[in-house]
Amino acid sequence: MQIDNLDLKPAQILFNYCRECKPVPGSAAELEAFEKIQQGFANQFELFFPDNLAPKTIVVIPSLSLDQEVLAKVDGALYYEERLLCLLMLLRMPRANVVYVSSTPIDPVIIDYYLHLLPGITGYHARERLTLISCYDTAAIPLTEKILQRPRLIERIKKAIPAGNVAHIACFNTTALERTLAVHLGIPIYGCDPSLVYMGTKSGSRRVFMKACMPMPPGAENLTCYDDIVHAVAALKDMHPHIKKAVIKLNDGFSGEGNAILKYPENLTGKAMYNWIHHNLHDAIKPVAKDLTTDKFMEKFVLMEGIVEAFIEGDVKTSPSVQCRINPRGEVDIISTHDQVLKGEDGQVFVGAHFPADEDYRAEIGAMGKTISAVLKDEGVLGRFSIDFISVKENDCWKHYAIEINLRKGGTTHPFLMLQFLTDGNYNETTGIFETANGQQLSYYASDNVQSNAYKGLTPQDLIDIAMFHGLHFDGATQKGVMFHMIGALSQYGKMGMVCIGASPEEAYSFYLKTIAVLDTETAG
């Protein structure tokens, strides 16, 4: 590179050089560079992943690269970056290094809390192999974008990878931002190529379900504007007169916050129904996210596009989820099944999950998940993802409707990783049961939405003191107890997450109820 401006300071010259030698984001050169980097990941996976003693580095980028206005409706969204602290458990491999990047510094008490749980490794040994890097930036933009704005920080990440180590990026979801970061760092992502992101949208999910011949709610996808919604809502009611409600979903909604509910008026049919929808749809739409107006929702819809589908009714209704993984060898694994706990407007917002899913259907939905995963594998999907269903019991039989695919980590990823890392057990996809090496079966209840105004002001130290005093902390001997996460959100928002592990679903949930009772008592008054 020729330097024409000799008035520039050396630091500025270096910055310009680094900036100019990288391909333009989204350009053909960047796409080619990313493809080459990802091609080498298959060899890395084959040679180094099975060997717990292999020198390796995992760069954790817990960025929620999602729509920030929708995400802003989630209390303490910044602290969702702490959910992937479960990956610190990878430090139990004695030659593994972890580089964890966050928007703001993570309290050392929280780090110590995780490292204390490592089986067979001292906290000191693990801490020597952990590098924590912060952007010191609370702006409402994705963490990955903050990193890309800081070339010196990118250099610090590179330097934190020891010579001779293979390395890869672990992230929450993979977008064009993560692709650019991978190219800047020169290391692959264990995740889906951003060019395949459409299959993880609400519209793309429906197309995949069609290819897999999966039952799903009647509806329409690839809608782009208000008029599309009007026609889709009207056609849905015309074709299925028994439907009482429709759900309008943004293609890239998060945790149900991108949904809206429409209730059809009673005693209207045909032209009268269409006229009502045409004239009243705007006022009848009820966005799920708090403080999200219909105008803002429609503005988001035009930007993201979306779907309309029937709201599935049922006296006995559940919302199971199947977690899957496609590795670089193209092997499909069913990792786990969960029964999601949904609240909010007509049960649209995810607040927690029971593991494993109900024994009546856990094997069945696991098999359905594998069929869908085979379609995704053929499309080139890589990494972890989940498939959500709505299940209704009719005449002692369960009917399952595929709802959406999340081509990313989600609310059920970190609880299962914690269970797996803490107990070194395995999930049997045939039986749907998790067992430890000594044959002990384990279940858990997990939630990211443990929240109360009374908890505001509790520091991480306070929470850990309370847990220790009341015997709530996970016990490695019994392999039961409670693990907390998103602890950083507690003091400001009165919010955190927990994973409650027990020998049965009932015992696991009892730990949750006990913990809530203890916290309520400790913060009373």
Textual characterization of the structure:
There is one protein chain. The protein is an alpha+beta fold. Among the domains are: 20-190, no CATH class; 218-310, no CATH class; 442-525, Alpha-Beta Plaits (2-Layer Sandwich). It is built from 18 helices and 20 strands. It has helices at residues 10-20, 28-39, 41-48, 68-71, 108-115, 123-128, 143-148, 151-159, 176-185, 202-211, 226-239, 270-284, 294-304, 362-378, 413-423, 460-469, 490-493, 505-522; strands at residues 56-61, 96-102, 130-134, 166-171, 219-223, 245-250, 259-263, 286-287, 306-310, 317-318, 320-326, 332-343, 349-355, 383-394, 397-406, 426-428, 433-435, 443-451, 481-485, 495-502. The strands form 4 sheets. Strands 10, 11, 12, 13, 14, 15, 18, 19 and 20 form a 9-stranded antiparallel β-sheet that branches. Strands 5-9-6-7-8 form a 5-stranded antiparallel β-sheet, with helices on both faces. Strands 3-2-1-4 form a 4-stranded parallel β-sheet. It is globular, with a radius of gyration of 24 Å. 45% of the residues are buried. The model is unreliable at 1-19 (pLDDT under 50).
Radius of gyration, in Å, reads 24 Å
Measured by DSSP, the beta-strand proportion falls in 15-25%
Specify the helix fraction band. Answer: 25-40%
Give the total of beta strands: 20
End-to-end separation: 67 Å
Q: Based on helices, strands and strand pairing, what is the structural class? A: alpha+beta
pLDDT averaged residue by residue: 90
Number of alpha- plus pi-helical segments: 18
Largest sheet: 9 strands, antiparallel
Q: Which of globular, elongated, flat, extended, rod-shaped describes the shape?
A: globular
Pick out the low-confidence regions: 1-19
